[in-house]
Specification:
single chain; alpha+beta; Phosphorylase Kinase, domain 1; Transferase(Phosphotransferase), domain 1; 2 domains; five-stranded antiparallel β-sheet
């Protein structure tokens, strides 16, 4: 890969060096660089030279910087700065050493069940934070999700996110987003809300589990038609080990009517979090990193990564959440948390309490014995004083 000097990015020489181009997208080029004053790696995004005179693209670029800077969250790529130097505009952002989710699926295929749900949970958490700021991503897809070498999950590219605080750049009848990941509302140009992102998430989750897109035809018009009709192959027909809960997530998120989808990313994340806590290790990032090693994407021995494992067979103990009945008048359904298992105290904890109790009891008697051994002998009690005896007069008998 070509090594570039700082002269290739005008106006940044005072702050950055070791600049290297690492990717080219539809709108921008991505560079890796070192920020001198903090000695850290950063990513620098620049509008492609042939597009920098396009006012709409420049405005979208500015909005991406602003939106990303506002939504600070550990599952969203952080933006550090936005600079305009002459005809060039730059976004200085967090450098995430790792892989796009699309690259992982392409190289490995369908993801393990636990890893897929862990990644999906982090994606939904990031979406929930974006939605909490009144924004809609509008372009969620595996290409816009980054998995770091530490196992972190980051949502990328808020370039076409809708922010009500900004003017809407979308013209009526113009499709915004990637064709295979559009919601039915986007296809027909209807008004969007946060549930449009949940449809795109459903497509992404489907692809994570099957390595196939649910709406995939060679002709773009056919893709749009199938999205509007909600026609896709059941995921269980493509993968036999899918659990009912996974299928329910996909079916609910891919409902054509927004009113029949989960009401919010926050509710969806709540159910997913409870399911994960009951059935899998809570060491999400460690497990994802272990998977990357197992898949040959990262060097290292996956056996050396400590993962908190639950006892017993997962497939024997899994239970899926129930769903609220969806009605046309509903404002949105949600994935209800799965019923809780009866609380049981682990045997090791009971043993610990017993040992602790015995030790405490022994210490108590030891202290009592020590206090008795070291105490002085008690002084003899004084003899009671003699009492003077007086003769009593004889008792007269009463006849």
């Amino acid at each position: 890969m070509k090594r570039m000097s700082f002269e290739d990015l005008p106006g940044l020489a005072d702050s950055f060096d070791q600049i290297q181009k690492i990717a080219i997208g539809g709108m921008a080029e991505i560079f890796r660089a070192r920020q001198k004053n903090l000695d850290r790696a950063v990513a620098i995004k620049r509008i492609r030279p042939e597009l920098r005179d396009n006012k709409d693209i420049r405005e979208r670029f500015r909005r991406e910087a602003r939106s990303s800077a506002v939504v600070l969250h550990h599952n969203i790529a952080h933006v550090y700065d936005y600079r305009v130097v002459g005809d060039d505009a730059y976004i200085i952002m967090e450098y995430i050493d790792g892989f796009d989710l699309a690259e992982i699926i392409e190289k490995h295929g369908a993801l393990p069940l636990d890893v897929a749900l862990m990644m999906a949970y982090r994606i939904v958490q990031g979406l929930s934070h974006i939605h909490a700021h009144g924004m809609i991503h509008r372009d969620l897809k595996p290409d816009n999700v980054r998995i770091s070498t530490k196992g972190e999950v980051k949502i990328m590219d808020l370039g076409i996110a809708f922010d009500p605080a900004e003017s809407n750049l979308t013209m009526p009848g113009v499709l915004i987003g990637s064709p295979h990941y559009l919601s039915p509302e986007q296809v027909i140009g209807a008004k969007l809300d946060v549930r449009a992102d949940l449809f795109s998430f459903g497509i992404t989750f489907f692809e994570m589990l099957t390595a196939k897109k649910p709406f995939s035809e060679t002709q773009t018009e056919s893709v749009y038609s199938r999205i509007q009709k909600g026609e896709y192959a059941p995921p269980q027909s493509l993968r036999g080990d899918l659990l009912p809960y996974y299928i329910q997530i996909i079916e609910q998120c891919l409902q054509v009517s927004p009113d029949r989808r989960p009401a919010s990313a926050n509710r969806l994340a709540a159910g997913m979090g409870e399911f994960l806590a009951r059935n899998y290790s809570l060491a999400f990032e460690a497990r994802v990193k272990q998977f990357l090693m197992q898949a040959g994407l990262l060097p290292g021995n996956p056996a050396l990564i400590e993962i908190e494992e639950r006892t017993g067979s997962f497939l024997d103990t899994v239970s899926a959440p129930s769903f609220a009945a969806a009605t046309p008048k509903a404002q949105g359904t949600h994935l209800a948390p799965a019923p809780r298992r009866p609380f049981t105290i682990p045997a090791w904890l009971i043993a610990l309490f017993l040992v602790g109790g015995l030790l405490g009891l022994g210490y108590h008697f030891y202290q009592k014995y020590e206090s008795q051994e070291g105490a002085p002998a008690p002084a003899p009690a004084p003899a009671p004083a003699a009492t003077e005896r007086r003769d009593r007069p004889p008792i007269k008998k009463i006849r």
